């Protein structure tokens, strides 16, 4: 059984609609697909309507978090109750803050003599989508400033860039507690993807585990073999579920659906931790 628990659509910074994602996952032989748009559950309804026999949907969201010392951390919340007011309000607050952050990043880029506007960026945004740096990257590509999303991030939009601006985010511990209170399960996404910026140390996982962390995304294209080995050791020591996922975004990123997957036994253990059965299938 092929299980991919981390993907994105045009309801955040992916390029496929939820319907296209489901169709591509079916074609790729994926049996269980996690929809985890950034700070958004907006694509759930369309993805559910697009389901066909042979594939099951794991509704979720990738929650943007920040540690108290300013390190960006992403927590996958899966199988949570989307009627939970506190969690949904936190996601909405995070989404709203992204607009103010984007304006500040654009201002810094303009100061460097590069002509780009908020209008240019918003033209890359699908209706109802969560605004993010990939949309700015797409605008920079359209303007001819860079050749691709990857080049935009490598040269201008990484976390250590002079253009970088932080935005409101809950701490990962707070996000985990919100997910758990909403009956879901929590997995830390690509925790050692150091090329994206600073990462938390293995020693700091203690507070996440104490908050209720359920799993670690071990298999991910941004992890080296050594980093993967360290995460496996940590997961075993702390009795955490180990997942793997593509972090698929569609066009503009190399990630392919199903390139990294979760073992069925690990998925069964993770799903059983939620307080209700929320996997969707027909």
Word description of this protein:
The protein is of the alpha/beta class and 282 residues long. The chain has a single domain (1-282), classed as Metal-dependent hydrolases (TIM Barrel). It has ten helices and seven strands. A seven-stranded mixed sheet has the order 1-2-3-4-5-6-7. Helix 5 (133-142) crosses helix 6 and helix 7 (172-181) runs parallel beside helix 8 (205-211). The mean pLDDT is 95.
Write the layout of secondary structure elements.
Elements: E1 2-7, H1 18-27, E2 30-35, H2 44-49, E3 56-66, E4 72-78, H3 85-111, H4 118-122, H5 133-142, H6 149-157, H7 172-181, E5 185-188, H8 205-211, E6 215-219, H9 225-238, E7 241-244, H10 264-271
Parallel strand pairs: 1-2, 2-3, 5-6, 6-7
Antiparallel strand pairs: 3-4, 4-5
Low-confidence stretches: none
- Percent in strands: 15-25%
Distance between the ends: 17 Å
Would you tell me the overall average pLDDT? 95
Spatially, the strands of the biggest sheet line up as 1-2-3-4-5-6-7
Give the number of helices.
10
Query: What number of structural domains do the residues give?
Result: 1
What are the salient characteristics of this protein?
282 residues; alpha/beta; 7 strands; 10 helices; 38% helix
Brief rundown of the structure:
The protein has 282 residues and is of the alpha/beta class.
